[in-house]
Amino acid sequence: MSWTIENTCRHSVLCWLATVDARGRPSVSPKEMWRLAGDEFHIADIASAGSVRAIRANPEVCVSLIDIFRQRGHKLFGAAEIIGCEDEGFDALHGPLADMAGPHFPIRHVIRIKIERSAEILAPSYRIFPDRTEAEHIGATKARYGV
Q: How many Cα atoms within 13 Å fall on the side-chain side of residue 62?
């Protein structure tokens, strides 16, 4: 079965944003409010001061998303920019994320990532058991984790 970035996004709850700060220190941070928009990926900055600071110093990022039961997903690589409420285009980017966040989680910035390349994430079980169906992979994962 072909597994697209759109499939991954539909079946992922969180994404993980990897950044590197001005001193070269890496950080990975979970993000809950995000969306795929064509060749861009948008993340709401609700409480992401560290991510924003790192991106301003070094815009190269990686976003990882995974369907935890299928144990497959994607890494998205690209350059990020911070879009604030004073910047042109903020309202258009903010709207869909604000709909997800609701009124209790104000969005300070939108992190806009231009996707330059992607790579599939695939659990080793797909190579070890190539004849398993997707349902069998999901069943084995749920059994292993007691879900």
A: 12
Structural contact between residues 72 and 122, judged by C-beta atoms closer than 8 angstroms:
yes
Q: What is the pLDDT of residues 26-50, one digit of tens each?
A: 999 999 999 999 999 999 999 999 9
pLDDT, tens only, 107-122: 999 999 999 999 999 9
For every residue of 105-142, DSSP letters joined together read S---EEEEEEEEEEEEEE-THHHHSTT--HHHHHHHHH
Q: Which fold has domain 5-122?
A: Pnp Oxidase; Chain A (2.30.110)
User: Which helix (H) or strand (E) element contains residue 143?
Assistant: helix 134-145
In terms of phi and psi (left: phi > 0; alpha: psi -120 to 50; beta: otherwise), the region of 49 is alpha
State the CB neighbour count (10 A cutoff) for residue 130: 7
Sign of CA dihedral 122, 124, 128, 134: negative
